[in-house]
Amino acid sequence: MGAGSRSRTGTGSWWGLLRRNNPRAIRAFEAGRGKRIGLVLTTTGRKSGLPRKTPLQFEQLEGEIYVGSARGEQADWYRNLVADPAVQVQMGSEIYTARAEPLGGPDEILAFLHLRLQRHPLMIRMLLLIHGLPPWAGERDLRRLAERLAVVALRDLRRVSPSAPTSPAGSTHA
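^ that's the sequence the OP posted. Answer follows.
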């Protein structure tokens, strides 16, 4: 990507590199390598209607799977699932359908960042750098980052009975 296609934060080349690596990451996750941190999310293209696969890291908390978009709401996979929240999740050889539910706001995303920072500090410190923030950021910088990101809960539809709500009232997320 040239300089003209870079985002406001100057990360255009970084996102292009990740996108070019996606097919390799998808093959690895589908083969079961890295299944404790990575999954393949299949969304329906909002324009094409075709299945679109994206490799993503995830966090599991209290039986729920959460994925974050470092590009925020601009990521294609995120925009696809907003248009159609019915998704397919593959973790190793396990494949299931899920309903994608974006988290409510910066406070929930900040809590997700704190969890990721605790479990994967190097990854989050790299993310801070990519977004032009200091890698040893304090609460203020983490909050600024949370305002740029998007996080989604993937509700496993196998676990939800037809009469059960898809989002328990009063629940808190990562």
